Amino acid sequence: MVVIMRADTPASEISRLIKKIEELNCMVNVVKGETQSILGIVGDTTKIDSSIIEANEYVDRITKVQQPYKLANKLFHPSQTIINVDGRTIGGDKLTIIAGPCSVESEEQIIEIAKSVKMSGAGFLRGGAFKPRTSPYSFQGLKLEGLELLKLAKKETGLPIVTEIMSADMIEKFIEDVDVIQVGARNMQNFELLKELGKTNKPILLKRGLSATVEELLMSAEYIMSEGNENVILCERGIRTFETYTRNTLDLSIIPIIKRQSHLPIIVDPSHAAGIWWMVEPLAKAAIAVGADGLIIEVHNDPSNAKCDGQQSIKPEKFKILMDDISKIAKIEGKHI
Ligand code: PEP
Ligand code: MN
Coil, strand, or helix at residue 113? Predict the structure, then answer.
């Protein structure tokens, strides 16, 4: 962090500021210019609340040279994180394919879809039991009954379960029943929930918030990791832009950025990004080509009668074709399903 002091700063103020920064276990190098002084702060500046320095009336401006996330930072953890779930791995040269309906609707529905996505090579089953809907009048999910049905589908197929948690009071139940706990876009900055999930050792699928920056996503991962749980999988699911043709705009540039900045695996959700079923295939392929560690895709056996997100769900037959195409692209990237 570089702090540029105003020209009229008394020497005593500079000394006071240096002392304050040193108390936070950081070192300060002072460059005295003709008119202005510059303080170069080195050490673990992640613990410094820069707004306190900025509030000092003699501080002209601050430039951050270090990222505020530490545990999620590749600088301190150069090797890629590989997460183990029920004998399966997420990250590294393995592609993680999570597929299933937006929401669990019935025993028949979830078991039929689970069987079909497994046959096509999916490694995980998704399905919402607790649904974060924009309208309170829309289907809110089967809740606990939905979790039971997911467990039945797991028993039938062996596919580990990925499902969304909406509040911290469900954590104990989720630890028992769920293999990967999903934090939805709307809860990406629910810091109390993130901290509680950080106290568990369950893999957490953290989806990017609707208008979250890359740094904000990594800071949310940092919340989970700073409590001890380093099993975080990031997910790009589209962000809000001025474009209205698609539900969201898929920001594929986040993949190479994350690969450069972090050691955490990142997967892509083309379904919620596009919001249109026929765009899922090209976006899924593009995600793998750009280096994503996997995909989470909405698959439904009867999209036109789905209780949630039928418009963006692909049918099992389409999913199978997509899986075959993805395997080929994965090879070029040195990955496999
Ligand atoms: C979902 O995966 O079902 C979901 C609601 O996604 P998001 O939080 O990305 O909108
Ligand atoms: Mn959905």
Answer: helix
